[in-house]
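dumping these here so i dont lose them again. two proteins, back to back, each one seq then structure tokens. dont judge the mess
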Amino acid sequence: MSNVEVVANIQDLVSNLESVIAAQIMADIDRANNFQIIAEETYSILTSGRLVKPKMSNRKTIAVSGNVATVSGWDSLNTKWKQSIKQNKRIYLEQDESQVKEYYHNLRTEFNRYGYQTKVWELDPKNNLGKHYRSHAEKQISVIQPDNSIGVSRGMCEEDCYPYFYALAQIRQQNIIIADPNGIWLFYTYGQVKFVYRLS
């Protein structure tokens, strides 16, 4: 993560940009912040309603964009979760790591051009290496509900999600904003990344 520039405030994320582009990015930051609040509320509904087993509650992450939320992992989404979130938040809860796998496979050459390859985790299924990192909620939402504003309930994974979004912004030629509890990440289309910590 050597190319991350930590800035002092949100306005520094858009300094030196044309006013129209800066205004659009600020609007996208507002959307990402709103999605981040919804992600935390969704996570709270799942854990406080005892929908998620206690041992799983500290391992799940929620990512939100538009009217869709994704939950990290694979083969763990159940109907009660989906119904509860749809009823309480009016958003659709999804989980589909296989879409991330297919997306990455189809664009492997482009991802490699920007220095990204899915990492392998020691507990990955032997016949499906990289599944753990592909199952991260923020990656799932980027494929299931493509948007440039994403909110996440936990701090973004810097070891694999950071390089993924660094590449993705350049592949899509779209600035991508991710708001997590720690701050706001802005991945620019030209390969720069800025981060601002939350003041709380």
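---- next one ----
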Amino acid sequence: MNVDVVVIGSLNYDILVQQDRLPDIGETFTGNELMLMPGGKGANQAVQCAKLGLAVSMVGCVGNDIYGRELISSLHENHVGVDHIAARGNNSGIGIVQILESGDYCSTIIKGANYLITEDDITDELFANKPLVIFQSEIPANIVEYAIQKAHKWGSRILVNNAPARDIPDETLRLIDYLVVNETEASFMHAAPVNSVEEALSCAVQLKKRIAGEVIVTLGDKGAVISGDVSAQHFPAVFCPDVVDTTGAGDSFIGGIAYCLVKGISLAEAVPFAAEISSCSIQKYGGQSSFPMLPDVAHALQIKQSELSH
């Protein structure tokens, strides 16, 4: 089938613990609630794209375990193509997420089968129809770099969410059409603090000089900035009345950006739309289950009702 988006990345089964605070070193602390659900940055981004009505194919690996079967099942239920997901090794990737009362979180990722993907999995047919191709940094760097080169050769547009942050060779950066990073990741790539809107504006301009296209730096409740050739533009955050869990908010944002890129909508319109989607996602627990459908956020782009049925 023709697809709008190919996501090459991670699939993790998430173990979420809601707790009042993080324990101190050596302390045993009692959590309030345990939740189990599918996740991983790659799978999350694929699901949000699909929930917005895009045709999506996921490329990655899961383990030969119950979690792997659950991860594939969740993608299938959310209408994400799973033909390019391989089951390898014993263990799927696992995310252990601690969610605080404020809605903030921290997480530890066990790589599992995510690191068993190979160059042979990056086939020409993935790029034959020139889809938008989305990457993150939860699979091996050499595979991401190889796939970016291949996608570029086929003429696909390339969106990289460098999360978690790691070094990307200059020759690979020059092939990236859209780089999306949060303030922590931007600081890593820029080798300078990004703690304010002003620092993010400067960082975005400098990062743009290193890639082929545009840079978006997300700043949580401070909004986001888009790079320009000599300056950058700031977009304020969308007000959220009830922050419950920010897990997956960045992935939801990526889905919104991808929707706009596929539909030919400008980045200046895409960022507020993606922020609205992200705002919806943080008002519920979990990642994929909290992601909104297109009718939930259509008002942010003034999408006509007739378009929502297509």
